[in-house]
Amino acid sequence: MPNPDPRFDHLLQGLSSRPQGGNWLQKAGAVVVTMVVFALAMTFSVVLFAVVATLGLLIWGWVWWKTRELRKVMREHAAHHARAAREAEARGPGAGPGPGQARRDAGIVLEGEVIREVPDDEPRRPGT
Q: What angle do CA 78, 82, 87 make, to 5 degrees?
């Protein structure tokens, strides 16, 4: 099939319809060069993977180290609430909050807004 654009004819002049075979030394050289390029590509990919994995581990370790105090506070907070729940359960239903505990209002939090149902007979709090 002829080239539809004659401006590119000079690029295609050296190409023949059938590729030239070359001698056995050229073929062996091509195989060796291909294997060397493949080996270099594999080496580069292994080194790149090792560098990325090392950086990932270093970043994970840094984040883990920086959040250790937060994890400690969260564990203490959870233990405090579990202890308070056990104490409230031991006092029985309707006993109300214990000493040093604030009353928990029953409410639903949706997207940062508190929705609280207030019975008509309950007095309104200031500011509401």
A: 150
| Run of H or E including 125 | none
Residue scoring higher pLDDT (115 or 62):
62
Could you write out the DSSP letters of every residue in 8-75?
GHHHHTT--SS-----HHHHHHHHHHHHHHHHHHHHHHHHHHHHHHHHHHHHHHHHHHHTHHHHHHHH
Q: Please classify residue 84 by burial: count the beta carbons closer than 10 Å to its beta carbon, then call 0-12 exposed, 13-18 middle and 19+ buried.
A: middle
pTM: 0.46
> Residue 87 has which token pair?
């104490």
**Could you read off the pLDDT of 13-35 as tens digits, one per residue?**
766 666 566 788 989 999 999 99
Residue 89: which H helix or E strand, with range?
helix 68-91
Q: How many CB atoms within 10 Å of residue 88?
A: 16
What is the rounded distance in angstroms from the CA atom of residue 2 to the CA atom of residue 9? 9
47, amino acid identity: V
**Which amino acid belongs to residue 69?**
E
